[in-house]
Amino acid sequence: MRARVLIRPKAGILDPQGQAVERALPALGFAGVEHVHVGRLVELDVRDAAELDQICQKLLSNPLIEEYEIQLLDGQNGAPGS
Amino acid sequence: MRARVLIRPKAGILDPQGQAVERALPALGFAGVEHVHVGRLVELDVRDAAELDQICQKLLSNPLIEEYEIQLLDGQNGAPGS
Questions:
Q1: Could you report the per-residue pLDDT of B18-61, keeping only the tens digit for each?
Q2: How far apart are CA B66 and CA B14, in angstroms?
Q3: Distance from C-alpha of A23 to C-alpha of A69, rounded to nearest angstrom
Q4: CATH class (in words) of the domain with range B2-80
């Protein structure tokens, strides 16, 4: 089963990449862009979707500073993680 | 309008992060995980969604080695980018 994991900095955690993008855009001529957050995207084929939560916690994300969202790519909706 | 941009290595481009994850998982006790790809996730509020394509090409992605997909987060579907 194909799955997608979206990993973002938790609310309140510094997001320097997002800040850099937000500051660069006006200089490139794009106004009106706000609240930019940069995270990671992981897409993978997994045999047992029940393992995804553990995979996210143990390897893909840093639960101290990041939150993750798992999306199963066969029509089901994503569920927010820790 | 809230938008999400998914940025991935193009097919055929080396994905060392994905390979690292794929190799690490069996050692952590997770079998049956394949075709892992790691990319970037950018979420942003944009006033004019028509600018997103240019923003992706000029700042968020490297069109030589990455492809991007724009998702508008108000119920519309994403459209694959360059």
A1: 999 999 999 999 999 999 999 999 999 999 999 999 999 999 99
A2: 11
A3: 27
A4: alpha beta
* Residues contacting B21, CB < 8 A, separation 6+: A42, A44, A59, A60, B36, B38
DSSP string, chain A: -EEEEEEEEPTTS--HHHHHHHHHHHHTT--SEEEEEEEEEEEEEES-GGGHHHHIIIII--TTTEEEEEEETTTPPPEE--
Does A36 lie at the interface with B, CB-CB under 8 angstroms? Answer: yes
Mutate to test the interface with A, among B1, B25, B41 (most CBs of A within 10 A): B41
**Is the CB of residue B21 less than 8 Å away from at least one CB of chain A?**
yes
Q: What is the ipTM of this complex?
A: 0.87
Closest to A4 in 3D by CA, of B20, B39, B10, B73: B39
* pTM for this predicted structure: 0.88
User: A2-75 architecture in CATH?
Assistant: 2-Layer Sandwich (3.30)
Q: Could you read off the pLDDT of A12-71 as tens digits, one per residue?
A: 999 999 999 999 999 999 999 999 999 999 999 999 999 999 999 999 999 999 999 999
